[in-house]
Design a protein that fits this description.
single chain; mainly alpha; elongated
């Protein structure tokens, strides 16, 4: 079930598609879903998803990309020809998604509020700021990060629990 755009938007973008008896609303929705899955794959690492409301740019790209996928299947592959216009549209959509993902192109709501870009949105680890202790090298090259050792010693030193080591 399409989230960002509608079957009617795709049909409005390229009315000729709707006049073909071999293309149903269900097939258009299928290709929109395929396009939206790729769009989500591009954006999920740097945006909080799902969006509370579809950003207008994502709606446009989803409509365009859904049409591209449909045209590739029904007009390019079935006839065994290459359609430069469809390839150019695919490249355009992918370039736009790459720019959004890198933060070079911003997303906004329909009321022109900026949607937060989170480039460093990664899982937290209490050792993520230290060099890793283990690697693929010989075990003689594996060392603990000196800063980590100092920080752990400081944590123990500040700890009120001091077991009797005698």
């Amino acid at each position: 079930m399409p989230i960002y755009t509608t079957v009617q938007n795709v049909l409005d973008l390229y009315p000729r598609v709707g006049s073909l008896s071999s293309i149903t609303s269900a097939s258009v929705a299928f290709y929109i879903d395929q396009a939206e899955n790729e769009i989500n794959g591009y954006l999920i690492n740097n945006y909080s998803m799902p969006f509370s409301a579809t950003p207008p740019l994502i709606q446009s790209l989803s409509t365009e990309y859904g049409l591209v996928k449909l045209l590739e299947r029904f007009f390019t592959q079935e006839t065994g020809s290459d359609n430069a216009w469809v390839s150019a549209r695919r490249e355009y959509v992918q370039n736009q998604l790459t720019m959004i993902n890198s933060g070079d192109l911003g997303l906004y709501t329909s009321s022109l509020e900026l949607i937060a870009y989170n480039p460093d949105d990664a899982p937290f680890s209490n050792t993520m700021d230290y060099n890793p202790a283990f690697n693929m090298l010989n075990s003689t090259h594996q060392q603990l990060d000196g800063d980590r050792l100092e920080d752990e010693y400081d944590d123990i030193d500040r700890d009120s629990y001091k077991p009797d080591l005698e």
